[in-house]
Design a protein that fits this description.
three-stranded antiparallel beta sheet; 6 helices; Rossmann fold; single chain; alpha/beta
């Protein structure tokens, strides 16, 4: 978290997260991963949590998981690809593919609800891949994210997130900012 502070990537305010939830805090992982040395260091630490698992391919959900997946894949000596939404559904594009039986690790930058990573896990399984685990640089799910496979992160934060109708920041009239990569 010191790295996030140094990179001015830990913000306080009123934010609409990519999950659609609202929060008083936002982690702008893109600012942290913009420095290749920092990205390599963090992602190597995350890769080490899955060392020895014989990972063939690392997949990150676009946009937030692209750099993290690539750097984790590099550390593990695996291929690194990303998935994208097409007509609201997570899919592989750009010629990316999974072969039946490939051992997959799903990686994202920040996990709040785990929704994107869950979609990638299900997509990979539907294509016949074996999902070995899910990794995140930061887990802000308060231990609630579940994927049916091991989930590991570099940092765990207990930061509250609210549904819009129950958000105390909304009730107090604090203007909301939507800094993420997608809307719900």
């Amino acid at each position: 978290m010191k790295i996030f502070g140094r990179c001015d990537a830990f913000h306080k305010g009123h934010f609409k997260l990519s999950s659609g939830l609202h929060s008083e805090y936002y982690l702008q992982c893109a600012l942290v991963l913009a420095d290749p040395k920092v990205a390599a260091k963090l992602c190597k630490g995350l890769a080490n949590k899955f060392k020895g698992k014989k990972i063939d391919i690392v997949i990150g959900p676009a946009i937030g998981g692209i750099t993290a997946a690539y750097e984790v894949a590099r550390s593990l000596g695996a291929r690194g690809i990303f998935s994208e939404r097409e007509e609201g559904k997570m899919t592989l594009r750009r010629g990316f593919r999974l072969n039946r039986g490939e051992r997959v690790l799903v990686v994202e930058d920040v996990t709040t609800t785990g929704g994107s990573a869950k979609e990638v896990v299900e997509m990979a399984k539907s294509l016949g891949a074996k999902v070995i685990g899910v990794g995140a640089i930061v887990d802000r799910s308060s231990g609630k994210a579940r994927f049916g496979v091991p989930f590991k992160s570099l940092a765990k934060l207990n930061i509250k997130a609210y549904r819009a109708e129950k958000c105390p920041l909304c009730k107090n009239g604090i203007p909301i900012i939507k800094p993420g990569s997608r809307s719900k």
